[in-house]
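For this section, I looked closely at a protein sequence along with its fold in token form, which I now present.
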Amino acid sequence: MKHHVNSQAIKDLVLSEIVNMIANGEYEVTIKKLPKTRTSLQNRALHKYCLLLADALNLAGWSYWATLLRKPLALIKSKRVAIYSQPLSAFQNGYLQALTDIEDSLPKAEVDWTMELVKENFWKPVQVSQISKESTADADTHEYTIVYENLNRFTGENFGVSLPWPNKENS
């Protein structure tokens, strides 16, 4: 028997089962307080933040492909060109050509950010790196702050987009 005690009825059921147990050494009872996971208000705020961030990135001209692939590729190429000595070796030329080929193979149509794309491509990777939890439902109440602060700093530094966390006053 394993119970998640979240109501008086379940608590009464568990106590009844314990009282009715045969004291013959066949049972082990463990009671453990679970960490308080995110609240429904925090979940709504997360989705609102992701929607607001998607809108802000789109308004700033950062499409999905430009943000995730074109900017990093351009940065890699510029750093490589800066460190390579002139004239370029065959390897260096090949490396830069490979980066150009990757860039050329990207979809030509730009895709706008959505709440879901922000959550999957920004929030969750930051969450995993900061609190080692894959699902947003598994985050404790205080852990959303850690993820938000790191993500907001990242988007501010890299894309010029920084937003306050949604609350009743600003949402």
Remarks:
- Residues 89 and 95 are 10 Å apart (CA to CA).
- The mean pLDDT is 84.
- Helices lie at 8-19, 40-59, 64-83, 90-105, 115-131, 143-159.
- Residues 40-59 form the longest helix (20 residues).
